[in-house]
Each structure stands twice: as C-alpha cells, then as structure tokens.
Write a structure and sequence with these properties.
By secondary structure, the protein is an alpha+beta fold. The chain has helices at about 15-20, 25-40, 55-65, 80-85, 110-120, 180-210, 230-235, 240-245, 315-320; strands at about 1-10, 45-50, 70, 95-100, 105-110, 125, 135, 145-150, 150-160, 215-220, 255-260, 270, 285, 290-295, 305, 310-315, 340-345. The protein has nine helices and 17 strands.
C-alpha cells in the first residue's frame, strides 16, 4: 500500500467559501474539488484555508463531499475561542484533511505542546547589524498532526511562514537599486521569517532529544525556497531552506531530506509571480515556495512508513489540466500542489 501526502496553498480559500453563490466562487470551488479528488491524497495539508472549524467542516462536506475529513483539536471549542486555541491570527488558517479510512489513526496536537517542546511561544528579533530588537511570534502557528501507523507515531508539521511581501512603494535610487527604506523593510520581513523557521527547527531538535528515530515531516508554504533572492544575495547571504530548516548536514541523523531532491529540476517550482525589484516577469520567475521535508528515519527503513527514491512531485499536469479553461478569477490557486508517496515497510 502507498500513502499519498499532499500540501497545497489554496489561494484565499476562505474568500471563495464566504460567497459560494457567486459565479466566480462557485466555479473556483468546483475546480478545487476536482483537483483534490484527481490528486487523490490520503493526507492533505492546506494553507490559506478558511478561518474556524465550522467553515472547514462545510468545505469538507459540501465542496469535497466528504472525500476527506478535517482534523480538528479535541473538544467542542466555541468559535470565538478557536483563534486562541489554534494560535492563528487573521483569516488564512492551516488545516489537515485525511481520508475517512485513516481518520481514527490521526490526531491534532495542541500548540501548547509544540511551544513547550520549542521552549518558547515568542522570541526577540535582532535585525541585521542592529542592537535593537523587538518581540516576534508566529502569526500562523505551525500545526502538528500525529499519525499512528503500526504503533509508531509520525508527526506532520504544517507551516505557513511570514510573507515577504513589501507594502512600501518601490522607489529606486539614481544607481537603480531600491531605496534604503524599501530594503530595510524587505530585510525585516526576511529576518522575521527566518526566526519563524528557526523556531520550527527548535521543535524538530526537541523531537530528536526525546526519541531515537523520530518520524518528522515538515510541509507547507515556506514563502521561500532554495537559492537566494535579490535581498538575500546582496544583504543576508543565506537561504531559508539550506541554512535554517534542513539542519546541519554534519549532524546527519537530524538533517531533513527534501521530497523534490530527485525531481526534474526544470519542474521543481510551485508558483510564479512578477518580481518588481529585478523586473522579471512571472513566466521567467518560477519559485519553489511549497515544500515537503522529512527526517532520516523515514528513508532508512527504521519506521513502518518509508519514502523511497522519486517519491516526490509537483502536481503540474493535474493542476494545468484542471485549470485549462479557467481565468485569473476562477483558477483553483496560484500555487501548485506538492505530493509525496510513502511505502509500507516491515519496520
């Protein structure tokens, strides 16, 4: 048996669910449902999902027709208290949905447990080259789902890191480079995002301090990927994936593998946007923002689920087929889903 895991940022899903009767929203929801059913995941992690459990349940029952079921925190949490319980602000929430046949094998972990293992709920941020600092915390707290498979727990950490969007107008200096204010704002966003990634790494490190062969999967929209953008190239000199989340390659047991490591390089992207800083148009600015990373025990045969070679893919074909006749207003999402297959072992 193979178990399929998919992560997908479903662009502003909450907005479509808030007005399901409009022509654009109705068509978008149809395409979203078609794409999910065609991909056929056993576990789906979504970002930019709707706010609140009731809306998520409505999506699963009325749009997906119970093909997948949402995984929510235990207890009947009143709607007004759910943002505090999930530690998520704003309207873009993260969710796990699973096939009904494995619903009894999964549970959602309280963010309180995560914060206990990471030994912090917020932290100080020192900006590049400055002594001043300010307090920061996850705007969208990572969500941890635990799958118990053949008596072994495997943790899935759904992440949607801070956006790098710069709200300041882009003003260029006489040499053609961005203004100091614009650069400063861009660097602050990237440093905050890096500290959020470092907090995820703190949680992962805690798992390795608790058990010998932890099965850990980190997935979601990191709003960044391998390589350096303009600001990282000229100012920060690091990239989020290699230098923060994946870990130290010399600490091999704790290093995380990337599901797209052996996926065709030219297809290793999930979104494309115009870059006003470099002037690149979307077609030539293909970005890998959505990721699935996993710990070594999931590749060395020590756990009952194993990720083998060529297990990861970006769902380009399905995404483009589903959206062949869509418009900017009706397309399922501006991100493409990423999937990874797990094989059963005798471990």
């Amino acid at each position: 048996m193979k178990l399929k895991l998919t992560t997908w940022n479903i662009e502003h899903l909450g907005k479509a669910l808030a007005s399901p009767g409009t022509t654009h929203s109705r068509r978008r929801l149809e395409l979203i449902a078609d794409e999910i059913r065609t991909i056929e995941p056993h576990i789906l992690a979504i970002q930019e999902g709707p706010k609140g459990e009731d809306t998520m349940r409505t999506f699963a029952s009325e749009v997906l027709e119970r093909f997948l079921e949402p995984v929510v925190l235990p207890g009947n949490i009143p709607p007004g208290k759910q943002p505090a319980a999930y530690r998520i602000q704003g309207s873009q929430w993260m969710w796990f949905l699973v096939r009904p046949q494995i619903r009894d094998k999964v549970r959602l972990q309280s963010p309180i447990v995560y914060q206990s293992f990471a030994a912090q709920s917020k932290w100080r941020v020192h900006y590049w080259g400055k002594f001043q600092s300010e307090e920061h915390a996850h705007f969208r707290h990572p969500q941890v789902m635990i799958l118990t498979w053949n008596g072994v727990d495997i943790e899935f950490i759904n992440v949607h890191l801070k956006s790098k969007i710069n709200q300041l107008p882009l003003n260029l200096k006489t040499d053609g480079t961005p203004s100091d204010d614009y650069v400063d704002e861009a660097l602050k966003a990237r440093i905050k995002m890096a500290t959020e990634a470092a907090d995820v790494r703190r949680y992962i490190n805690a798992k390795f301090a608790q058990k010998p062969n932890p099965g850990v999967v980190v997935l979601g929209d990191f709003n960044d990927g391998p390589g350096k953008d303009y600001f990282e190239e000229f100012y920060l000199f690091f990239d989020l994936i290699v230098n923060v989340i994946q870990g130290d390659i010399l600490s091999a047991e704790e290093f995380l593998n990337h599901s797209l490591f052996d996926f065709k390089t030219s297809l290793r992207w999930t979104a494309r946007f115009d870059d006003q800083v470099t002037g690149k148009k979307a077609e030539e600015n293909r970005l890998l923002l959505d990721h699935i990373l996993f710990s070594q025990p999931l590749v060395n045969g020590s756990l009952p689920l194993q990720i083998n070679t060529h297990a990861g893919l970006v769902e380009h074909e399905i995404h483009e087929r589903i959206n062949a006749n869509s418009t900017k207003h009706t397309q399922s999402s501006d991100h493409r889903p990423v999937s990874c297959y797990f094989d059963m072992t005798s471990g």
